[in-house]
Every structure is written in C-alpha cells, then in structure tokens.
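Homework help board

Subject: predicted structure for assignment chain

Our instructor gave us this sequence and asked us to write out the predicted structure in token form, then describe one feature. I got the tokens but I'm not sure how to describe them. Can anyone check?
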Amino acid sequence: MTEEDTSTLFHRVIIESSPVALPYKTYQEAFILGGLLAETLGCPVRDMACLRSKPADQVAQAALATRADIASLKFLELFEPYGPYIDGKTVKGQPLDVMRAGQFFKKPMIVGTTREETVLYIYGSYNKTVSIAQYLTLLLIERPDKFLEIAEHYKPTITTEDQRELLVNVSTDLVFWCPTRNLTRTLLGQGMGDIWMYLWDHAFSFPGWGPVTFCEGRVCHGTEIVYVFHTAAKGNFTFTKEEELLSSSIMQYWTNFAWTGDPNIGHQGARREVKGAGVGSASLKVLSGLERTLAEELSDKTGVHPKHGEVARVALEIEASVDSQIFKAQLGFSKRTFKGSQLVWPKYSGGTGWTALHFQVPQNQIIEDYKADRCNFWDSIGYSVPK
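My token output:
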C-alpha cells in the first residue's frame, strides 16, 4: 500500500494477523542477522552461491537457531526476526509512521487478528516458566522509557509463578490488535473510508497443531487460515457442522470483497441482510467461493451439476422435494443454521461504535470497541521501540 511501483497490481487489501507494531530493521541490524545466518550455515557473508547450495531444511534450522539468539533479550523480535529493512526507497520507514504521514494508496481493506496471536511465539520460545523477575526484566529491556506504566497496566500475576500468559496478553495487545486498531483509525483519518475490521475467535475442534501442543484449544496465530481455504480435510481432519458454517461465512465475505470491494455484496450485487433467510429463500444468491463449495457438495450428494449462479435455485428445488430433510442433514445446513453467514458486516467507523465482526461459533456477532482500555493505553504511550 505504500509502494508506488506495486500499487497498480492490486485493487483491494486483506490483512490477516499482521504484527503492525514490529519495527523494521536498519541495514546494520539486518546485516548482523544475515551474517549470523551465513556463519551458522558455514558460508562467508554475502556468498549467495554458498547459501543457495544449502538444503532447505538446513537453512530452516539455521534460521531458527539465529532467531533464538537474536530474540534472547528483546522478546518482540520473537515474532518476525527476518523481514524488510529500511532502505529509504522501497521501504521508506516504519509502517505506522509512513501511514501517519499519508504515504499510502487508498484501497478497500479488510483487516483483523486472532484473539490469542502470540501464544504460538511466547510458548514456542519460552518452554519453561517465566518468573515475575524475568517478566519485569523483559518489559524493562523492551520499553525502558515506559516500563513503570506498562508494569502498572499489566501487573504480574501473583497467583502463579509463570507469567507466560501475561506475556501473551501484553504482546498480543502491543504487536497485533492495538496497533492494527491504531493503523485502521489512522487510515480513516487520512480519508480511507472502506475498511472492515474483524476478530477471529475460534480454535480448532480437532488436533490440528501436531507437535505444537500448546496451541491446542487456543486461537493461535494463523488459526483462521484453514477456515478461509476450507482445508481441514487436507490434514485428514473434519469440521464440525458449526465449523462448516463458520468456514462458509468467512469464504463468502472474502470472495465477495474480492469481487466488489464490499464483503456484504456479491459480484451481482446481492446484499446480505442482517436477518436474511436461509437456503430456502428465493432471494438468497450465493455467488462466490461459497457457491462453488456448495455446488461441489450438491454434485457429490445428488448428482446435480448446477451452473454458476444456480446453486440457490437448485437448493430451493431440493428443499421442496420429499427428501429435503435427508439432504439438509447430509450437507449440514438449514434455514436456522445458515443465518450465521448472512450477518451484515458494518464498516469500521466511530460513527457505528467502532464495530468489528467477531468470527466465532455458533454464530458470528458484531462487537464494539474491543479492548478499548488497553488500546487507548498503547495509543497514549506509542508503539515504537526506542533505539
């Protein structure tokens, strides 16, 4: 959004779980990290031929090792040690600073985070108890200028020695949700009005994290991806009926947005009503990725092969048939349950109470000014880490 050379290559923006407050490195910082990576791989610095000769798994292990070394003190570096550095040309400055200066191209945007973004990073990096003393030391190293204010706002938990959950709260607020809110309001203040904000708040119902056991039952970074692309079956897992509806709803919003720039409007202009009817309504037009998903299931379950734009009509005819109840049980949708994907998602605006779409089961909801107190605090002290 800030680079003129690429601004014509896309028309709309979906930003999922961006660590907005993480500072980009200077050239010197990036060079040090690259040098450590090269050294770990047994290559001279700048020897690209040597680096490219290494197997992918060896490079991944070296990146993990250098990541842990760099992140040993400043815990914010845990989240994204490798990334862009500021060169003054392509990357002109820190993201929030550049946006505040109005140096961006206005595009319709969907933006949001998961509820527990940093469980993955905190528990992945600190596999043992983090004591109160260690917690306070991390805060002091990260923000010496605002240490007392942060420690007062996020008081250590005295009922348990382990402060990792508190670190999750601090870092999720500081790195993800609150700077995302700050960025969104900055863009609104710069005249970019077509913005929709969301909070993803559903953990896998299945053991989809493999050895990353600390993310089981948690809404970790990246949790929503399997629902966006409906890929649970790729890992031999199965969505619950509620998860099928949740996945269908986010696919519908995302594909509507790709078509029209509005998550509520399909590519033929069919607006979703807040209390819209279900599959049995002739007014329902499923005209996006959701339609294609239903079309495939219609074909699998019934042998019917609807053309593009005909899913609603075919579903209506089947519902009227003698076997409609069996069909609905097989596919797992009905008038009652399908309402969840019909919720109109208001734009993010102070005029509407700073609303966001709360993705959850059994049904999505609209929430207002989520984490207002915490985000107002971070807005007041700033997100930048002093050099």
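Reply (TA_rk): Your tokens look well-formed. For the description, you could write something like this. DSSP finds 14 helices and five strands in the chain. That's the kind of observation they're looking for.
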